[in-house]
Amino acid sequence: MQPLVMNERPPVLWLTGLSGAGKSTLANQLKARFNAFGQMAVVLDGDELRHGVCRDLGFSALDRAENIRRAGEVARLFRDTGVWVVVALISPFAQNRAAVREMIGEGFVEVFVDTPLAVCERRDPKGLYARCRQGDLALLTGISSPYESPRTPDVHLDGAVGQGVDQHVDQVLDFLRARGDWRH
Amino acid sequence: MQPLVMNERPPVLWLTGLSGAGKSTLANQLKARFNAFGQMAVVLDGDELRHGVCRDLGFSALDRAENIRRAGEVARLFRDTGVWVVVALISPFAQNRAAVREMIGEGFVEVFVDTPLAVCERRDPKGLYARCRQGDLALLTGISSPYESPRTPDVHLDGAVGQGVDQHVDQVLDFLRARGDWRH
């Protein structure tokens, strides 16, 4: 095996958006694309992190902040190892996203998966919207907890019906090409 | 760049031993050796984790357990990404090490860096032993908090004076060769 060619500063793609917006699907597609060209990559998925590194945390504003902080710290460890990182995490509060952008530094790419609430609720892949409407779930972003939309995301993806994940992958890769991170 | 050749199940080397035993030095040497042959690797160092993912934790038995749990979760994320992992963490309690072994599964390699307390205290690279003896530090493993030596570590390194880090690296690589993980 050859010594690896690596970016000096691999990107950390931070996918933010509502539950059901399509963050995890997009993240896994991006990882597959990177891997296909020999670039190691990891998806840090909010749901999975909550079963692992963040298992002790709940959904209060404080715990959400800590959740995002830890995701950022893990992302940084991967980035420093030369692994490209795709984080898929609702990350509803602008302040927390700003903190993690500062922590990660120049490699940070904020990707807003901007899918309308009505679309997310219709998909409801985990049944969370139904549970919240029925009163079984107290805090759900977009319903009973705010989502602060990014004002100046690095990449703004239109998640309305008709836009497919392939288009979103292309849009992210275009951004990375323009930055010189992606040459394929 | 070529698609990467990767182990199905990269090893997670878990270096346990007293403060000053030489865990970090050995971990960095192992990483350098792996990298030299094109194998991506990461060192998860206890001190660094405490400034990052584990910044909210102290040194009580409960916090130490959580510290080790999180280190194990991060190790698993790297392992699942195909990155070799070297953890350098005092991890004084057998119960916590057993838990992390169970979590990681078959790739887990417990490496006991068995350096006598007197040698560690003479080195005292962080001045912790001096601080503890002077009463400035309440809990220090080996002095005021127990270290439970592994009874059946996968690799047992003699850290007495006269043994150099190169010998320890060779001993770990021999173990990995015997398992079929390392072919150089």
Describe this structure in words.
The structure is a homodimer of 184-residue chains. Chain A is an alpha/beta fold and 184 residues long. Chain A has one domain: Rossmann fold. Chain A has helices at 23-36, 46-51, 61-81, 94-104, 117-123, 128-133, 165-179; strands spanning 12-16, 41-45, 84-88, 108-114, 155-158. Chain A has a 5-stranded parallel sheet, sandwiched between helices. The longest helix of chain A is centred in the middle third of the chain and has 21 residues, at 61-81. Chain A is globular. Chain A starts with 11 loop residues before the first strand and ends in a 5-residue tail after the last helix. Residues 1-5 of chain A have low confidence and may be disordered.
Features:
homodimer; 184 residues; alpha/beta; Rossmann fold; 5-stranded parallel β-sheet; 7 helices; 43% helix; 14% strand; disordered N terminus
